[in-house]
Amino acid sequence: xxxxxxxxxxxxxxxxxxxxxxxxxxxxxxxxxxxxxxxxxxxxxxxxxxxxxxxxxxxxxxxxxxxxxxxxxxxxxxxxxxxxxxxxxxxxxxxxxxxxxxxxxxxxxxxxxxxxxxxxxxxxxxxxxxxxxxxxxxxxxxxxxxxxxxxxxxxxxxxxxxxxxxxxxxxxxxxxxxxxxxxxxxxxxxxxxxxxxxxxxxxxxxxxxxxxxxxxxxxxxxxxxxxxxxxxxxxxxxxxxxxxxxxxxxxxxxxxxxxxxxxxxxxxxxxxxxxxxxxxxxxxxxxxxxxxxxxxxxxxxxxxxxxxxxxxxxxxxxxxxxxxxxxxxxxxxxxxxxxxxxxxxxxxxxxxxxxxxxxxxxxxxxxxxxxxxxxxxxxxxxxxxxxxxxxxxxxxxxxxxxxxxxxxxxxxxxxxxxxxxxxxxxxxxxxxxxxxxxxxxxxxxxxxxxxx
Length: 452
Known about the structure:
By secondary structure, this protein is of the alpha+beta class. Helices cover 28% and strands 23% of the residues. It is built from 10 helices and 20 strands. Strands 10, 13, 16, 17, 18, 19 and 20 form a 7-stranded mixed beta sheet that branches. The chain has a 5-stranded mixed beta sheet with strand order 3-6-8-1-9, with no helix packed on it. The chain has a 4-stranded antiparallel beta sheet with strand order 5-4-2-7, with no helix packed on it. GO terms for molecular function: acetyltransferase activity; lipoic acid binding. Belongs to the 2-oxoacid dehydrogenase family.
């Protein structure tokens, strides 16, 4: 018998911490390889963390609601042997790329190992998942042991209430407030700092609440202080890095999309459904990137200089607004998908984003991004490049505007396309050529799709 400690793994995208939402196992319980042991919430989404070892839970390192650091102990398991462990008896935190590779091949000498190498659900060997299912069936077939009167019931695992930041949890502890008793005033019931302060006020209605502190810069009362944490911190870090490192330039073009809307209307009338404008735009963007590969690239430091890495395939990201902030899900191998297939995958990822169920893989690895800010009523914008990509293309709202058609003035459906690009990877000629190609496809979608 040996003790093996499994650390909170690398969750991808440079994330360094996660909030423990719930334990899915209890101390003294037997766990199987790849069995989910905890649910954690990162700045990106909620993730179930599986255990890569089989054994008995000895110690759970952390309390529900606590913020855990990547690489720090998560769970200690008593195992029959430590063949699957490293030389120090600890399961090291795998990087996201290692997690991806974990499911591609299993060395022959490791096929009988009790540790699968899994870190996040969906990565690892299929054989280990089969062993897990067999063990569950075997345990289910065994008669339940007699329960003595002295045995205590295992604690019921509950999910931690959703709060806007770890500082809110700390404030609740200091005020002696039970978070599970509160109904948050934020989006989706999110518990805010104001909710904690309101719960901490005396119940006597004649007692006046203490005045909020004044802002030192303006002298005005402070309505609320919200820590830059979680997804807000991740967004701030990413966009600051983009603005700091990438010398970007912006080009835009007005586009008549009357024919595109007519095409969508015809498809919907004939089939009951049609790809969204974003799906058509994504298909044309992918085609444009094949013609202008400079924009499907990134800058990489080599230690002695920099290289432009042009990529053969296209992983297309798209901006999605959720109740907790902006995320960029990624459509893998977008170059191999039709407009209908892109539409289906965009919808699936957008739904998962709103439910907070996106995986680390679905939120990383993009090579170019599209953004439909027209849904917010904006005509145009200067989008910030999603570092380390080389470009982002945005589309504004579609409105009726006067337009010259065949020498005559007409009312047409017009929008504005904007591209922000990394001026290090290409010049305005390539960016303008790419933008004009996408605009031409949007104006004449039938002819464009016939060639794709």
